[in-house]
Amino acid sequence: MTTLILTVAGADRPGLVAAVADVVDAHGGNWENSSLAELAGTFAGVIEVSVPTDRAGDLETALRAIQGQGLLTLSVLTGTRGVAEEDEERLLVMQVLGNDHPGIVREVSAVLNAHALSIEELATETRDAAMAGGRLFEASVIAKVPPTVDLDALRADLERLATEIQVDITLG
């Protein structure tokens, strides 16, 4: 089996997911994992598909053919899985909440990178602050923590950062 990673983006309209799913199914592929969302009128996402190795090329060709059906972009990459590596790593779950301002994602990701963490999932949202006015920024992060990471040093750096950029960072 071959793992393909599809990235899709286009003007949001009914049927985009169905079009991709139909092509995957028609070529013996299996839709395994995905993260898809509508953002500001654009539909975008990442999809992990497994397909028999001998059918991967045909699936890629067929997927590229649907670009004219409303998808502005569609990229196909071959995925890799490092099972042995994954067994050694732990996951860190983190929530970030504070008044919205530029640079929050940059600052948080810089601290994670400085400690060699790899972001598995990142979901962000801004919304109106109900009582205080203004905008709130909220992020949910899941990151891989290599066994060599000093968790106390990571926690201290995140606490320092939270104070500097005036957000709450909660580790779960």
Automatic annotation (TrEMBL):
InterPro entries: ACT-like_dom_sf, ACT_dom, GcvR, UPF0237/GcvR_regulator. PROSITE patterns: ACT (PS51671). Pfam families: ACT_6 (PF13740). Residues 5-79, 93-172 form the ACT domain. This is Amino acid-binding ACT protein. It comes from Microbacterium sufflavum.
